[in-house]
Every structure is written in structure tokens, then in C-alpha cells.
Amino acid sequence: EAVVHWFKRDLRTTDNRALSLASEKAKKKGVPLICMFIVSPQDYQAHFTSPARVDFELRTLEVLKEDLTEKDIPLYVTTVEDRKEVPGYMLQKFEEWGAKHVYCNIEYEVDELRREAKLVRKCLEKDISFTAVHDDVVVPPGTLKSGAGKQYSVYTPWLKAWIKHIHEHPHILDASAPPSQNPPTARTTFADLFATPIPPAPPNKALPQEPRDRLTHLWPAGEHEGLARLHRFLLEKAGKYKDARNFPAANNTAILSVHFSAGTLAARTAVRRAHETNTAHRLDAGNPGLVCWISELAWRDFYKHVLAHWPYVCMFKPFKYEYADITWEYDTQLFQRWCEGKTGFPIVDAAMRQLNSMAYMHNRCRMIVASFLAKDLLLDWRLGERYFMERLIDGDFASNNGGWGFSASTGVDPQPYFRIFNPLLQSEKFDEGGEYIRKWVPELQGVGGKAVHDPYGRGTGGEAERAGYPKPVVVHKFCRERALERYKEGLGRG
Ligand code: FAD
After folding, report:
1. Which helix (H) or strand (E) holds 477?
2. What percent of the chain has pLDDT over 90?
3. Which residue positions hold the site described Electron transfer via tryptophanyl radical (predicted)?
4. Span from the CA of 363 to the centroid of ligand 1 (angstroms)
5. What does the alpha-carbon distance between residue 306 and residue 141 come to, in Å, rounded to a whole number?
6. Catalytic option among 24, 246, 356, 363
7. Which of 82, 207, 420, 426 is the most exposed place for a label (fewest CB within 10 A)?
């Protein structure tokens, strides 16, 4: 007999609800715990998962396997080519291992829920108990209701309810116990599982050697990294986060999203630690940096609650149905220019090049480039949403969809449609000295002073032109008017 924990986007042993429960069960029954992870190339494909992210996951699984092996717990990782076969394959393994109890943490996306439902049915038929628990979020979806008993669709009152709920139920921040040591016999009984290596990335998601080496260096994998980075951030930077977070040239945010997305760090752990660091012992008072950071982490929960309550956001539909009839452009050349960071708008280009190089982009820049794609270029925001997923190492459906909906004004609690970022003003405000632009756009390194924000408008353009920097692909003032008209037209139809 055995107990199984199915790892998904919870790739850690620390503070992992389902893993902890699985371990307790195994201990109580005096049977071994087996862990498994399925690499599903078709799911990666269907969800536009970036090669950088797949690589991070696989590198993390190596770390996880080592940590679990120290406790005599096998981690079995295998690839199942046909995603429809995943539940059947898993059941076959459960039977082979004599597993009577299976545990996992819930993922809220539609495909994942359907896969789980299939597996639950199969387990029931074979008398195997299946337990799925909330872990990915601090407060489980469905817990918070507005005065009218409805799901909130506005962040600020939702945040108030989120904070109140945590203060009234402080135990939800408690850490789960780490898994216990397996009986020593597990080593021999499941020797083949210990010996199975972590599979390589599927061919269409494999990184070439150069970016792989670079990203490995930039993004060390595994939960120990996540915990260490959290510790450093709280010690050194969190205090000034509120004022410093919006400047992309400064390294003032936590850069932890990759860990939250892969589950190498629990959002709960981060909120608990930040809360403990705050001497006011309130989530909404005391150190302004910590309060602000916790409220940013809350956005992550908010978007997951939205996804769980309105699953149609997974189906390429805008959250606000009245925005479904906007006429978007599909100019592939313009889109390509945006993707490559060759729009002639320095702040946009710097940000896109950061994304293409690091598989990451600063939050302020994500808003700038998203607004630029949807409102200046009038390209369908879903093109941008998809490109982000294909590139980001921290790609997360709910946060990405939420961020795009916010910027394109089609999402939950969005920017009003008539609020259109002026890329030049954003650039001058948040990258005043132009350090971020010069770092990512080498053609502009020799452009001095304010001209760096707009070399062909504010400057003579000579230096930029000689270095091969493109002229702006559109005129912002004209685009602004066009966007206002197009949104109004769409809303009139919707
Ligand atoms: P910090 O500023 O240190 O914040 C701490 C944590 O809070 C983050 O790691 C993240 O988990 C959460 N957080 C912060 N801001 C947001 C936000 N606006 N929405 C949701 N969670 C937030 N985040 C992702 O994790 N994956 C994505 O795919 C993603 N796509 C985005 C797309 C767009 C268009 C926009 C505007 C935002 C997107 N974000 C996404 C949110 C945000 O940009 C990143 O989480 C943040 O930049 C990560 O850097 P950090 O860890 O240093 O954040």
C-alpha cells in the first residue's frame, strides 16, 4: 500500500498543504509516501507555456527530487504525450503502487479542473480516495462575499474583505508541516522510482544551450532560492517598496513571481513572513512598504478568485462582455515590431527587449507595453497576452489575463478605457534618467539627456538614426483619438 502526492504548480516541500496531508496519512497508516509529477507537452502547448518556464520547472524538479530522496521519498516524473491519457496513466500507476489515497493542491484553470474531475471519477471507481485542497492562494476562492452575497469584481472592497478574513482567521497563515521520513524499506520497494531521471523538455519547448545557460544563471531554481530571496527582500528592500517599486531601472521589487508561479514559494509563506516582519502586526497598518507589498500579493489572490468564479475568462473572452465588440487590428508587421522591441518608442522597446532577454519584465513596463499594444496599436490584447505567456518565466494565467484585461480596459476592475498611457510621459516619469532604456536599447546608449525618451521628437534623431534605431511606428496623439473612437463604437454595439 502507499499514499501519493501529485505535484503540479506546488514544487516545494516547505509549507505545502496537500503534501503535508499526504505525509500525515502515510505516517498514520505506516505506509510509504510516493510523489509524482507529469510532464504534459500538449498542456504546455495549449497553454502557451514558455520554454523558459518549462526549463525552470524541470530544473526545480531536480532539486525537489534530491530533497525528497533525503527523506526516502521517491519523486517519479514522467512525460505523457497525449494529455487526454493523463488521468488513465495516473490511475494505472496508483494501482501498480497499491496507492489507496491520493492528494494534490487545486489549480483553478478550466483544463486543469476537467482533468482533475476525470481522475476523481476514475479513483472513485477503484475505491481510491482523492483529496484536493486549496493551497495556491492565501484565502480560498469563494470565501469572500460582498454585502449582497456576491463575488467581488472590484479589488479595493475585496482587499478589505481579504484582510478582515485573515485577521479573523489567523490560522490560515499557519505553515504546513514538512513531509516526514519514509520507512527505510521504501528505498528498496520503489528503487526504480528513485532511479528514474527527470525527463528532458519536450522538443518544441526546449531552450537552445545559450539562453538555457543564461536563464539558469539568472533564475536559480528550487524552493531554497525562493525562500532565500524572500528573506533578503524583507530584510533589505521591503521597507522602501512603496516608493521605490515603480522604477524599472532600480532593482526594488522582490522578483519572486517565478517562485509563486512554479509554487517553489507559497504566497501564504510570503504573506506570513511579511506580516511577522511588520511590527504593527496588521496587514493594513504599520510599515508602509510591507503593507503595500502584501496588497500587491493580494492582487494575485484576487485574479485567482476571479478565474475560479468566472471561468469563461479562460476561453479567450473579455471579462466585461460589453467590450467584446471592439474592432481590433491584426497587422502582423506592427505586432512583430512590438514583439521585437522595434516600435521606435524607447520605453516600450526597452521593456520588450527585457522580456525577450530575461523572460521577465518589470510591472510598470508590463502596463506600459500592454496599454501601447491595445490602445496605441489597437491590436487585439489577446495577441499580447499570448506573447507574454510564450515568453515569461513567471507566466501565470490568472495574473497575466488580469493584467492584460486591466491595461486593455476589457478585464475585471480595469483602467477606464479613456485612460490611455502616454508612453513618453510614462518614460519621463518612471525612467527619468533613461538608465533602463540605455540598458536594454543599445542603439540609444549614445543619446544624451531627455532625448533618450524620444530621440526623433525631443532630439535631432541623428545619433539614434546612425545607430539604426527605428522611427516611431505610430503617432501617439492620433492613436489616442482613434482608440477613444474605437472603444466608444464597440461599447455602442455591446
Ligand atoms: P513584486 O512587486 O515584488 O510583487 C510581489 C508579488 O505580488 C509578485 O511576485 C506577484 O506574485 C504579486 N503581484 C504583484 N503585482 C501583481 C499584479 N499586478 N497582479 C497579480 N499579482 C501581482 N504576474 C505573474 O506572476 N505572472 C504573469 O504572467 C503576469 N503577467 C502580467 C501581465 C500584465 C499585462 C501585467 C500588467 C502584470 C502581470 N503580472 C504577472 C503582474 C506583475 O507584473 C508581476 O507579478 C510582477 O512584475 C512580478 O515581479 P515581482 O515578483 O518583483 O513583484
Report:
1. helix 476-493
2. 95
3. 328, 381, 404
4. 6
5. 8
6. 363
7. 82
> Annotated catalytic residue: which of 112, 296, 390, 428?
296
- Shared domain for 86 and 144, answered yes or no, is no
Crossing angle, helix 51-70 and helix 209-218, to 10 degrees?
Answer: 60
Confidence of residue 281 (pLDDT cuts 50, 70, 90): confident
- Please compute the mean of the pLDDT values over residues 350-377 and round it to a whole number: 98
* CA distance linking residue 153 with residue 312, whole number of Å: 14
Could you tell me the distance, in angstroms and rounded to a whole number, from the CA of residue 273 to the centre of ligand 1?
19
175 is in an annotated binding site: no
Q: Which domain holds residue 106?
A: 1-135
Is 363 annotated as catalytic? Answer: yes
Is 162 noted as a catalytic residue in this protein? no
Is 111 within any annotated ligand binding site?
no
User: Active-site residue 97, yes or no?
Assistant: no
pTM (global) more than 0.90: yes
Closest ligand 1 atom number to CA of residue 303: 20
Q: Considering its fold, how many domains does the chain have in total?
A: 3
Residues 414 and 459 in one domain: yes
Task: Work out the burial of residue 362: count CB atoms within 10 Å of its CB; fewer than 13 is exposed, 13-18 middle, 19 or more buried.
Answer: buried
CA of 396 to the centre of ligand 1 (A): 9
For residue 379, give the 3-state DSSP assignment.
Answer: strand
Annotated ligand binding at 188? The verdict is: no
pLDDT in tens, 152-179: 999 999 999 999 999 999 999 999 999 9
